[in-house]
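hey so u asked for the seq, here:
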Amino acid sequence: MADRRSGPPRPANAYRRARNIAKGPWSNVKVSLQLPTDNVQALTEFITAAAVAEIAQAAEAAGADAVNCTDHPFPNDEWMATGGHHALDLFVTLAFAAAHTSRLRLHTNLSVIPYRSPGVLAKSVATLDQLSGGRTIIGVGAGYQEREFLALGVDFARRNELTDDGIRTMTAIWTGESVDGNTALPRPAQRPRPPIWVGGNSRQAMRRAVDLADGWCPVPNPRSLVARRHTARLETIEDFRTRVEELRAHASSVGRTGAFELPFMPFEGLPRDRTAAATDEFIRQVEELARSGATYLVATPRAETRSQFLDEIEHLGRAVIPRLDTIAVSSPLEGL
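ran it, structure tokens below
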């Protein structure tokens, strides 16, 4: 296939779907695609301004709802040697994506709150939200890399306390009012704040999402990685259903209802081939996740080169994303 980097950018509406949003609390499954900015070994393929711009434009043209990137500013060498990864700064990266798109949402997945002071993080989010016209989704987590915490001068043992305090402090800062004698303007474009999605499989993360945020994003996690990731096992659709029922029970106990997002990564990832059977099976799995409470898919195209990555996105826009518009979802907290 020809290398698209030498040609003009594809038109922003080339494969954009017309979202068939139902009236009332119902919507359609949405998609956040991960930018490959953790693949620093392929520097010229993925870690350039042109690559971020072209991939973001392709995602928007394909009908994706958001792009996302991850947060590891100073990872430990031992973790890197056993499957870890580097990443570009997620706010700078998403700002590049914002500058080359008009509709695509900008999703931090995840910003580790304890790595930055709440004031600095609140300013980064507000700036991105203002300059993008209100397109930020701030996925957050408490973090799990103990040695990275140490390298950044943050107390790992206090990560949950720092995360809860960080969400509360940022929310206060974004009102534009004085917080302990200090004020940060401008406010984010979105009101009352950009949506906050809390990552992590633990009951503490789930309760944090209900009590302080606008969504919960658990992740598939095999038993073998529980200790490494410091988060609970989640291996099957039954595990997912059980956790969603726990989420609903806690929300009911504290009187939380209404809008709430539940992003999730498909257990097997995106389809590994382009056969009709593989696509049908993937859609069947998404339908099952949606019936269980998922409202968003968080997914990563598989590719070794930028051209392959763009081709994968184009295929998703033609064969997969339009079919997601047939899958209705609602807030997992509806009806409580």
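The beta strands are 27-28, 30-34, 66-69, 105-112, 136-141, 196-199, 215-217, 263-264, 296-299, 328-329. The two ends are 51 Å apart (CA to CA).
lmk if thats what u needed
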